[in-house]
Amino acid sequence: MFSNRGLEIKTPAQIDKMRIAGLLVGETLELLRASARPGVTTGELDAIAETNIRDHGGIPSFKGYSQPPFPATICASVNDEVVHGIPGDRTLRDGDIISIDCGAIVDGWHGDAAITVAIGEIAPEVTELLRVTEEALWQGMVAARLGGRVSDISHAVERHVRGQGSYGILEDYTGHGIGSEMHMAPNVPNVGKPGRGATLVEGLALAVEPMVTLGTKETDLLDDEWTVTTADGSMAAHFEHTFTLTTAGPWVLTAIDGGAARLAELGVSFGGR
C-alpha cells in the first residue's frame, strides 16, 4: 500500500479483503431490509445488525466513532432524518421510510453502504424519491473511469437527480474514500462539474452516497450532535455503496453480486473477480 497525493491505493489482495467486509455489510443490510416493518423499533434493527456483524467475524465501524462517540451499529434515519439518526425506541409505522447506514470492519478493512426502505405503503412521490436517489448512486458509479476524476461521479449524480424533477441534493455531506479507515480522502460530493478532483486509479476505493430530499438541500443538526434533518421537514432518502475500479470496470464491493446485474442493465462491464 502506498499514498498517491494523499490517497490510499490498495493492492489487489487488500481490495479482496475489502470485498469480504463489503459483503458482510451488504448481507447485513439485506437482513435489515427484510426486518424493517411496522411495529419494529430502530433499536431492534440495530441489535440485529450488531449480532450479524459480530457473528461473522466483523466489528461495527460506527459504534464509538468520532466525538461524541456514535452509540450504535447502524445509523437509522426516519422520514425527514437524512443521515446519522441514532437507533432507539422509535417504532416504525406504515408510511414511514428509514435510511439505514451500515459499516463493518473485517481484518482491518472497511465496508460502508446504505439503503432507504419503505415501511408498508408509502406515498407515490416518496416512492419516486427512493427510485431517483438509488438510480443516482448507480449513475455516479458507472460514470467512473480509470484516468477520470472524482467529480465525474459528482456530476453524474447531480445530472441524474436534476433531470428527474425538483429535488434537494445535500452538499454539506458527501461520499468519501475508504479502506483501512472508514472516512479517508478524497471527498466525493454529490454535485459538481466533471473533470475535477483526484484522478481515479486502480486500487482506490470510494463510498458514493447521494442524499436527496423532496424539499430543499438545507439541513439542521439535532441536539444529539449526530442526527441530520431536513430544515423544511421534507422526506429524505440515502443510498450508498463502496466500490472500486479495475481495468474491466466498476466492482461494487458492498453489493451481494458485486453489482454485476445492475451494471449489465446499464450496459457497463463488471470489474469484479
Overview of the structural elements:
By secondary structure, the chain is an alpha+beta fold. It has a single domain (2-265), classed as Creatinase/methionine aminopeptidase superfamily (Creatine Amidinohydrolase, Alpha-Beta Complex), CATH 3.90.230. Helices cover 28% and strands 26% of the residues. The chain contains five helices and 17 strands. The protein has helices spanning 12-35, 42-55, 124-142, 150-162, 260-265, and strands at residues 2-4, 7-9, 59-60, 74-78, 81-83, 97-106, 109-118, 168-169, 175-177, 184-188, 205-208, 211-213, 219-221, 228-230, 236-238, 241-246, 249-252. The chain has a five-stranded antiparallel beta sheet. Strands 3, 4, 6 and 7 form a four-stranded antiparallel beta sheet that branches. A three-stranded antiparallel beta sheet has the order 5-14-13, with no helix packed on it. Helix 1 (12-35) runs antiparallel to helix 2 (42-55) and helix 3 packs antiparallel against helix 4 (150-162). The longest helix is centred in the first third of the chain and has 24 residues, at 12-35. The chain is globular, with a radius of gyration of 17 Å. The two termini are 20 Å apart.
